[in-house]
Each structure stands twice: as C-alpha cells, then as structure tokens.
UniProtKB/TrEMBL annotation:
This is DNA mismatch repair protein MutT. Its cofactor is Mg(2+). The keyword Hydrolase applies. The keyword Amino-acid biosynthesis does not apply. One of its GO terms (molecular function) is hydrolase activity.
C-alpha cells in the first residue's frame, strides 16, 4: 500500500493518554490529515500537516503506526505517532492558511469517550484503527 495522506497522531501526557482531535467548522470532528506531496516522505508530511493545521511546530515523529486503506476516495493514510516539545493546552483554536482559512478548534478526547457521532464515517473508522494500533501504548502508559 502506497500512502497518499499523512496523519500525525498526538497523545496527551496524561494517564491514560488522550488523542488530539479538532472540530472543523463545516465537517465535524477530525484528526489532522493531509496530502503527501510528490517526493515528500510520509513522516515529513505528517509534521508539515501538524504545523499547518494545528500551529504545532516543535514535534518529532516517534513511531510509524502503519498504513491504512480508508476505503474513501482512494485514500491510503500513513499514521505517525508524534512527540510534541512542551506542554499543550486543554483546548485551543488555530486559523489555517490553507483549507480556505478555517478556524480549527483543538481538544483532547479519551479513547473510551471518542466523539464518533460528530465524525464523518471515514474518521470513525480511522479512530477505530488507531485505538487498536495504540492499545499496547495505552496499557503501557495507563
């Protein structure tokens, strides 16, 4: 599977860890995700998308979480667990420069209380994939 979308995954430092999500003003709750540009490595794309969509500029890729066929518009997502330098607030908003300049509202969600009803079905499936992929990390940390 060759990925065409990169998805940075950020977990909180709290126990048990929570996952970073955002509310798109038109499209509901989402994970940060974007197109991998030609010649760009998926991990580099994940860090770029994290910066563009959330304003988080000091992050590194800690672990490759694999590729996933979204079964939506030919998208194959490459997930990357990212480590952020410094503490992040409980919630914040970020005005994007792309995606029509939307204001994204970021927040943390517990894995046992994900806002799936507010997500497009593709993000519901992505969160289910991540919950399984991150399960060993959740039990190690919590």
């Amino acid at each position: 599977m060759r990925p065409n979308k990169a998805c940075p995954v950020v977990l909180s430092s709290t126990l048990p860890p929570k996952i970073l999500l955002f509310r798109h003003p038109l499209a509901g709750v989402q994970l940060v995700k974007g197109t991998i540009e030609q010649g760009e490595a998926p991990a580099a794309a994940a860090l770029r998308e994290l910066s563009e969509e959330s304003g988080i500029t000091k992050a590194t890729v800690k672990q490759d979480l694999g590729c996933w066929d979204a079964q939506h518009l030919g998208q194959v997502w490459s997930f990357h667990l990212c480590q952020v330098e410094g503490a992040l607030p409980e919630q914040w908003s970020h005005q994007t420069q792309d995606d029509h300049g939307h204001l994204f509202a970021f927040f943390w969600a517990a894995f046992d209380d994900l806002p799936c009803n507010d997500c497009h079905p593709v993000f519901q499936r992505a969160l289910a994939y991540l919950n399984n992929a991150l399960e060993p990390l959740q039990s190690d940390r919590g």
